């Protein structure tokens, strides 16, 4: 007796029987969460924890693809770096003598500009 192996792609496309939401409802929830300022990673966690949706890819599209189609996609790397930069700037307003923080700010700004340049070059191709 041979058993048919299912690929991971087929497993992700299979809809669970207990899930009562359809593709349009999942997309609407994703857009709503993106308007609140969440990144695609945080949206996935929120869908799993609060809405009981194990994978948003059940509808055949990833969260980032849905956000890109609606022009709401924000790169998580860039947004996290921007948050770190703002936190260090706020710290430096109170502690002007902190040379370690000044160096960290310079390094983070350089990393942010490198990532942005890389994304622009990638979009041009």
Structure notes:
- This protein has 125 residues and is mostly helical.
- It folds into two domains: 8-69, no CATH class; 76-124, Helix Hairpins (Orthogonal Bundle), CATH 1.10.287.
- The protein has six helices and no strands.
- The chain has helices at residues 8-13, 23-35, 40-50, 63-69, 76-94, 99-124.
- Helix 5 packs antiparallel against helix 6 (99-124).
- The longest helix is centred in the last third of the chain and has 26 residues, at 99-124.
- The termini are far apart.
- 11% of the residues are buried.
- The mean pLDDT is 84.
Question: What key phrases describe this protein's structure?
Answer:
single chain, 125 residues, mainly alpha, Helix Hairpins, 2 domains
Give a nutshell description of this structure.
The chain is mainly α and 125 residues long.
Topology summary:
Layout: H1 8-13, H2 23-35, H3 40-50, H4 63-69, H5 76-94, H6 99-124
Helix pairs in contact: 5-6
Q: Give the C-alpha Rg.
A: 20 Å
The proportion of residues in beta strands is: under 5%
Q: What kind of sheet is the major sheet?
A: none
Mean pLDDT comes to 84
Residue stretches low in confidence (pLDDT < 50, at least 5 long) are none
Number of strands: 0
- Terminus-to-terminus distance: 50 Å
Instruction: Please give the share of residues in helix.
Output: 55-70%
> Overall 3D geometry?
elongated
Supply the number of structural domains: 2
By oligomeric state, this entry counts as single chain
Structural class by sheet pairing and helices:
mainly alpha
Count the helices. How many?
6
The SSE order reads: HHHHHH
